[in-house]
Amino acid sequence: MDTHDTPQSAAIVQAGLEAMGRGAWEEARSAFEHSLRADESPEAMFGLAVALWWLGETRESVRCLIQAYAAFRRRSDPAQAAGAALELCFLYHENLGNHAAAAGWVARAARLIDEFDLEPLRGRVLLIKACCCSDPDQSEAWARQALRLAVEAGDRDLELCALSEIGAALIAKGTIDEGMPLVDEALAGALAGEGQLDTVVVTSCRMMESCNRCADFQRAVQWVRAMDRFIERYG
Prior knowledge:
This protein is an all-alpha fold. Helices cover 81% and strands 0% of the residues. The protein has 13 helices and no strands.
């Protein structure tokens, strides 16, 4: 079967994407599953993986992402394949605590980016490496490189996530007064809609981790209150 979308399947995938934009995760799931019954496109499989993650079905999301990655590779679409690999790295590291699998997927993404000269994705590799790194000095260095690339490319999502990661690294090193304002800034920008939904996820996770690290529980409570509208809409 040709993995390129048929017109009907493409329309259903678009409906699923629109549902995700509204935070209607069950509606999005239904749309992508409907599309996959007619045409097993990697776009529909990737969309289903995202919807499943927001619905809390992480392991099923990982399964769908691996299938999407394989389909993108068969279709000779390295940019989409690298994007799927980066998503897999994040899920394995942040949600499943499987650091070996996470390392494998970020390495696969990095190789694709080098092989096919996918410069717009290079900053995302640096960011995910910073997220996965246990050495705060190295994490800060990678995050600062990602920030530089983000500013040069005008990539607001990468910029906000990199700021948050730099702040978290500084806090991990004990430089709380320097790091916390960056974490605050990144989450404020993300909640204001400067980035995509994933950017809110990353920056809010870094905020909670940072507050826990320096025992600033009042700040965590204040940010949870500030996120009420987001949580109510998107879950």
